[in-house]
Amino acid sequence: MSRICTLTLSVLAAGMFATSPAVIAQTAGQPAAKPAAKPAPAKKPVSQSRKEIKSEAKGLALATEVTEEINNNQLEIANRVLTGTAQCEFNQKVQVDPLQGKPGHFKVAFNKASYTMVPQETTTGAVRLEDKKNGIVWLQIPSKSMMMNHKIGQRMVDGCMHAEQRAAVEAVKAASPQ
Q1: How far apart are CA 5 and CA 103, in angstroms?
Q2: Domain assignments of the chain as residue spans, ordered by start
């Protein structure tokens, strides 16, 4: 026999031993037995989609923001917050307004974005309003105010002055000897 025939017979013989019982039964003229049904895979517990999780997180953040309590020290700081329009460097403006019905909460708007901020205590006596969710901070000292993005450590706008700050700076200039 040639090598090809020997190889072919070897492959056929190996296939015959590897044949399933259903195929052997059919070749013997018997009806094929139905293969056993595989059990259904166990269902995994239903998990929430990312969208649902994000939605719940946003709702929780909103609830936390809305229900954030202001203590007496923060209310005292809120009384020192300058409100209205602050003129800033490079012809920019920041609008600071108290939120109606929420003592100690302020809406601070800059560049088409607005932030809900609450006063935070400082060791220096500076007025610090903060939107913890967005990482935005409004700092107010007697000579100027500025807005910072605390998350990336960058100043967003500087040299902002309300009318009261301009008057204080002018008074210091007038009082200092030339």
Answers
A1: 96
A2: 64-175
